[in-house]
Amino acid sequence: MRKYIAVLGIVLFGFGCQETPKAPEKTESPQVVPVLHKAPDTLDIPKDKTGDMIRYGRTLIQNFPEYLGPQGTIGKYGGNGLSCQNCHLEAGTRPYGFNFFSTHARYPQYRAREGKMLSLADRVNNCIERPLNGKPMPHDHPEMIAILAYLKWVSQGVPVDARVEGDNQIEIKLPNRAADLENGKKVYNQHCLRCHGADGEGVLNPDKYTYQYPPLWGKKSYQPGSSMHRLIKAAQFIKANMPNDLAKWDKPVLTDEEAYDVAAFVNDDETHPRPFTELADDYPVIEEKPIDFCKGPYADPFPEMQHKFGPFQPIIEWRKKNGQKTGY
Fold first, then answer.
1. Cα(294)–Cα(165) distance, rounded to whole angstroms?
2. Are 70 and 80 contacting, i.e. CB atoms less than 8 angstroms apart?
3. What are all long-range contacts of 4-12, with beta carbons under 8 Å and residues at least 24 apart?
4. Can you tell me the distance from the alpha carbon of 132 to that of 221, in angstroms, rounded to the nearest whole number?
5. In the chain, what are the domain boundaries?
6. What tens digit of pLDDT does each residue of 221-259 get?
């Protein structure tokens, strides 16, 4: 069993009882609310053949398994019935919800996980192979082209190689402790079980092979090595978006620590097994491994257990001191 422990205002009177002028009271600085990038309106998709392809790409993002899943009507590339939209919320347009705001603008891109430059089609296939537990789609496949057309449309107005507010993950304060799996279980039972099930099995749609709410572990869930399998990345997503029917990035339901603990609970592979994936080839340059990647070796002296469950601050401090990447 692993359980980780968890203005002073001063009024001065001078001679003659004359009151010294009162200093202005200190006030808190107003909170700076970021100006979020806004996805284009679907009503503005052009009504021509290009627009038809964009709309089709959006449909594929929303309903991938219907067309391209294990029982897909067009092809069989996804392996578990999950949809792209299960992670890329609202067809990749929700702020801080793994959106596509700047995706097209930033590819081709060097990816540390593969240790090489990837095209955007390569990156789409990453998602099909890992979270969707499937096989890669040919780059010239009509459905791949449709997905890329949609990603380009969502990214319109974003300069090449640029980032915009809301396209990343929301920042959380990392607790100075390891994740508490027992507390994560309590958070899961209180906030997550009603949608994702007591056994993390999710809720199937009436067709019995696509999901209304995705499974979080088990044979039909995402593989290790997926972004959602990393504790910090998952906690950021959970804090900004879950429970899905209640939380908003600026009005979260969970605290940072609750999101941290429940992410660890969901991703605890000893109690919640998931489809196996070989991780030996991931991050061939080990200095580039994120601090919350679950599989060694590492270029720092910390064990796998700490990289998976924290505490992360000692890892960050050591890497800073030794000139290594501290990303997650």
1. 28
2. yes
3. 4/177, 4/178, 4/179, 4/180, 4/181, 4/309, 4/310, 4/311, 5/177, 5/178, 5/180, 6/177, 6/180, 6/183
4. 8
5. 42-154, 172-328
6. 999 989 999 999 999 999 999 999 999 999 999 999 999
| Predicted confidence (pLDDT) per residue in 75-129, tens digit | 999 999 999 999 999 999 999 999 999 999 999 999 999 999 999 999 999 999 9
Q: Under CATH, which architecture does the 42-154 domain have? A: Orthogonal Bundle (1.10)
Please state the CATH superfamily assignment of the domain spanning residues 172-328 in this structure.
Cytochrome c-like domain (1.10.760.10)
Cα–Cα distance, 237 to 247 (Å, whole number): 11
At residue 277, the pLDDT reads: 78
Residue 110 φ/ψ, nearest 5 degrees: -70, 130
Closest CA to 38 of 128, 103, 99: 99
Tell me the pLDDT band of 31, cut-offs 50, 70 and 90: low
Enter the tokens of residue 8: 């002073």
- Which band of pLDDT confidence, cut at 50, 70 and 90, is reported for residue 20? very low
Q: Cβ(256)–Cβ(80) under 8 Å?
A: no
Q: DSSP letters of 154-184?
A: HTTTPPTT---TTSSPPP-PPPSS---HHHH
Q: How far apart are CA 106 and CA 156, in angstroms?
A: 12
Q: Tokens at residue 211, please?
A: 């999901």
Rounded Cα gap, residues 310 and 292, in angstroms: 8
Q: In this structure, what are the phi and psi dihedrals at residue 13, rounded to the nearest 5 degrees? A: -115, 130
Fold: same for 42-154 and 172-328: yes
